[in-house]
Amino acid sequence: MRIEHDMLGELPIEDSAYYGIHTARALHNFNITGIPIHQALVEALVSVKKAAAMTNRDIGALDKEKAEAIITACNEILAGAFRDQFVVDCMQGGAGTSANMNANEVIANRAIELLGGNKGEYEIIHPLDHVNLHQSTNDVFPTAVRIAAIRLLKPVTELFADLQTALQEKEEEFSGIIKVGRTQLQDAVPVTLGQEFGSWAQAIARDRWRLYKSEERLRQVNIGGTAVGTGLNAPREYIFTMIEKVREVTGMGLARAEFMMDPTGNCDVFVEVSGLLKAAAVNLTKISNDLRLLSSGPRAGFGEIILPAVQAGSSIMPGKVNPVICEAMNQTAFQIMADDMAVTLAAQAGQLELNPFLPLIAKNLFEMLDLLIQTLPIFIERCIKGIQANTENCTEKVFESYVLATVLTEYIGYDRASEIAGLCKTTGRTVREIVLEKHIMDEKTLDEILSPQRLTSPSGTIRKER
Fold first, then answer.
1. Which pairing describes strands 220-221 and 255-256: parallel, antiparallel, or unpaired?
2. Using one digit for the tens of pLDDT, what is the confidence trace for 17-40?
3. 281 is in which domain, residue-wise?
4. How far apart are CA 102 and CA 113, in angstroms?
5. Are 129 and 152 found together in one domain?
6. Is 166 in the same domain as 284?
7. Same domain, 310 and 287
8. Which helix (H) or strand (E) segment is 163 a member of?
9. Which residues touch 261 (CB under 8 Å, ≥6 apart)?
10. Do the domain assignments include residue 463?
11. pLDDT, tens digit, for every residue of 258-299?
12. pTM
């Protein structure tokens, strides 16, 4: 054991631990979820620390040997080492101070070892005087959250592109399959099964584009603003060099906010991104619900599509197969909507120059992104790509439905078409049978009007007043 000190006193720290007293106090104070800060946030924090060491070295504020030891420690962590030492809970008070100190201490103690010292010998490398030089939690943590969010957004937008492609492939595959459309769950005019998939693809295309563009909102960072965005205790040269180094380390097109108090105290950008993720979750829910409806039955429901059978559906009913992948997608979407509410509440609860609830924003935002990263590939591969059409059932329902009378209104008027629809309902006979029996049209004309192409596209004719 080693003994470390802070303004509150001293604590024993395990010799094997690379974190120090500030992290140890956070472990005691915030034993809340048992979930440590996100690995993407760890990488982002360490990237900022590396950039700061490079900047302070280059402007002459930090001894070159110390700076190189800090940079080497950061490189080791970014390569995957010491990740188990980032232990503070993702739910923590202090606007991210515990996460920032966890990073400072782990980097410092590893740098001390690289210089031949023992962990805790902070006269060699100090977590605050050296690793945190010219920084504050209040510019480091918001910057790191933005970097981590951008990194997680990239695979999400790529997955939405994959989902869009999978839906468009089904749109083409099912383009010739005519079926009954539905409004308010009642029979409506015919559509093709492909058109339904095309509609979903368009919605996902919008989500893909919105999420892709949302990265721009996250690129403005407040690093160099220190405590409240004024840059107190940070040399002007550091502020302007630091953003260049952060760009170099992360490979991202980040920009220094022109008014750094803004991203220090205001979190509306995270609400915007969260809201776009919620909008995507709404579309995913709608699509999943539609797929469950269209596959329902299969004998006593719609039964127009067949979802891939991925597991037995019941412990009591043999042969039952449930739409479990759609249900998993639903649940992911519901959780995203709940996370969005938490982000919204945390963002509006900030006061004056700082939002102390940014750790909650980060936790929920990263959860939203993680859920999509984990669930979308399953949805695409185990559901969308394997969907089959029940073509016979689709076609039979169209020509058995009285809604074909709607197509005739252009030729025979609304009242007479309503009469035909009523006869279909009362007699159980088809529109075709009644029209031919009453000699309303000849068979050739009726077949042209009721052709699949005519039923699912504009007629190209102008109805003349009778």
1. parallel
2. 999 999 999 999 999 999 999 999
3. 141-391
4. 17
5. no
6. yes
7. yes
8. helix 137-173
9. 222, 225, 228, 229, 230, 353
10. no
11. 999 999 999 999 999 999 999 999 999 999 999 999 999 888
12. 0.91
DSSP state of 187: E
The secondary structure of 63-85 as a DSSP string is -HHHHHHHHHHHHHHHTTTTGGG
Task: Kindly state whether residue 58 falls inside one of the protein's structural domains.
Answer: yes
- Which residues share a beta bridge with 388? 306
Query: For residue 411, what is the domain's CATH number?
Result: 1.10.40.30
314 is a catalytic site residue: yes
Instruction: Tell me which of 47, 295, 296, 314 is the catalytic residue.
Output: 314
358, 427, 342: which is closest to 136 by C-alpha? 358
The pLDDT value given to residue 182: 92
* CA atoms of 181 and 401, how far apart (whole Å): 11
The answer as to whether 460 is a domain residue is no
CA distance 24 to 120: 13
Task: Quote the CA–CA distance of 112 and 372 in Å, as a whole number.
Answer: 40
Give the Å distances, CA to CA, from 360 to 96, 135, 266, 319: 10, 22, 14, 44
Strand partners, 221: 256
